[in-house]
Write a structure and sequence with these properties.
Helix content of chain B: 25-40%
Number of domains of chain B: 1
Largest sheet of chain B: 5 strands, parallel
Largest sheet of chain A: 5 strands, parallel
Strand order of the largest sheet of chain A: 4-3-2-1-5
Shape of chain A: globular
Oligomer: heterodimer
Order of helices and strands of chain A: EHEHEHEHE
CATH architecture of chain B: 3-Layer(aba) Sandwich
CATH topology of chain B: Hypothetical Protein Ychn, Chain: A
Radius of gyration of chain B: 14 Å
Distance between the termini of chain A: 21 Å
Strand content of chain A: 15-25%
Structural class of chain B: alpha/beta
Number of strands of chain A: 5
Number of strands of chain B: 7
Distance between the termini of chain B: 26 Å
Number of helices of chain B: 4
CATH class of chain B: Alpha Beta
Chain lengths: 102, 134
């Protein structure tokens, strides 16, 4: 059963992204929102963990939260798909359930 | 109504924020609806069921004894991630011995807590119908 995982905390402040990557099964989707979007940036201490999970997990990031923080799409780790709010809704309905890593 | 598998995922320490207490309240409410309830304790959530909690000097309620009552509400599937215990230098002996009585086996007392690996936890989350996060 497919899970959409959401992460809304900066990976440099909280371990929500670490926990998500540790416990997300193959075939899951991960959507970074709010301060979680900092985890989508390349060249950080967290990038490698996402890079190595990319084969098993689909990564998404919420565009409005990127824009609000001045993060251009050129700064994202390759493979991240940027979604808008309706994309967020689609991800929610396309998966069986949502795991929110608070 | 068909029974659904509810999984409560607890990831916060007990007294710094309200998450743990709120989770426990929702678990007890959910138990009244006779659903299939499981609890997961991950990351700092493992501190919620640590032995020897005493909040008298804080002047707030010590709700840890309530976990011991969960067995009476047929909440007896309590999973603790081993990696989270290890990272904090804890073992199952540092946790409250949560028990339940199996009416099919002449009320034999059984352990509610199961320590499982990240891989097993991953599969368990995947297998749940509803995830509630605290």
């Amino acid at each position: 059963m497919a899970i959409l995982h959401t992460v809304n905390k900066s990976p440099f402040e909280k371990n929500a992204l670490d926990a998500c990557l540790r416990l997300a099964a193959k075939g899951s989707s991960v959507l970074l929102i709010e301060d979680g979007v900092y985890g989508a940036m390349k060249g950080t201490v967290k990038s490698a963990a996402i890079e190595s999970a990319k084969g098993d997990i689909s990564f998404y990031v919420l565009g409005p939260d990127l824009k609000a923080r001045g993060i251009g799409e050129d700064k994202l780790i390759d493979g991240f798909k940027v979604v808008d709010y309706s994309g967020f809704v689609s991800l929610t309905v396309d998966n069986d359930k949502v795991q929110a890593w608070l | 109504m068909a029974t659904k598998k509810f999984m409560y995922v607890n990831r916060k320490a007990p007294y710094g924020t309200i998450y743990a207490w709120e989770s426990l309240e929702v678990i007890l409410i959910g138990a009244a609806f006779e659903q299939d309830v499981s609890l997961a304790f991950v990351d700092d959530g493992v501190y919620q069921i640590a032995k020897g909690q005493d909040t008298t000097e804080l002047g707030i309620k010590n709700f840890s004894p309530t976990y011991s009552a969960l067995g009476d509400f047929e909440v007896n599937k309590i999973f603790v991630e081993k990696e989270s215990l290890d990272a904090r230098g804890l073992t199952i002996d540092d946790l409250m011995p949560l028990k339940w009585e199996d009416e099919d086996e002449d009320w034999a007392e059984k352990d509610s807590i199961k320590v499982i690996s990240s891989e097993e936890m991953k599969a368990l989350l995947d297998d749940s119908d509803v995830l509630l996060n605290f």
